[in-house]
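Below is how a single chain appears once it has passed through the pipeline. First comes the sequence as given, then the structure the pipeline wrote out for it. We keep one example in the README because the format questions we get most often are answered faster by looking than by reading.
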Amino acid sequence: MKIKNAQFVISNTNYKLCPKENMPEYAFIGRSNVGKSSLINALVNNKNLAKTSGKPGKTQLINHFIINNNWYLVDLPGFGYAKISKEKRKEFETMISNYLLNRKNLVCLFVLIDSRHKPQSIDQEFMQWLAKKEIPFAIVFTKSDKLGKNILQKNIDFYKSEMLKEWEELPDLFITSSEQKKGTEEIKDFIEKLNLSFKPII
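Resulting structure:
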């Protein structure tokens, strides 16, 4: 897929205020500081589309972008160790879960995982919740350029083996680097393929 244009549409805290569900939608989520905004910018070849920051927890809204005028990319707030209050964290959790459970045109959620780290319980519990709620998702390993080829493969293999202790089969997996734009074409091709089978909601 070639991305010809990418434009910001709207930011919300309530899924009911999101754009009409007449086009396929793909959301990106991950723990704070996983490199989500950088990956989104690499995907659309626009380093200024999603706001990046050295401080975890920068994204605090449901951010909609329209891509090629025919599908939505959604930047969701990160979760995990961002320095926010318990009350604010609860608000984020409610906002995100309401979006995921009620957005009918959500075709796939991309769950971002830092390839340098071992499986974290917060990620595993979130993905198990997604499976239980039948929300389709794919795993995106980020920051692969920060590791040597052998160590990267060892980390990915270990992650897979740990997941297979709980899962019968694994979701689609992508290995990416925002700096090198590694894996971005594969993700875009995956989205393009899913777009073909999307049936507009009447």
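The chain is about 35% helix and 20% strand.

See the next section for the split statistics.
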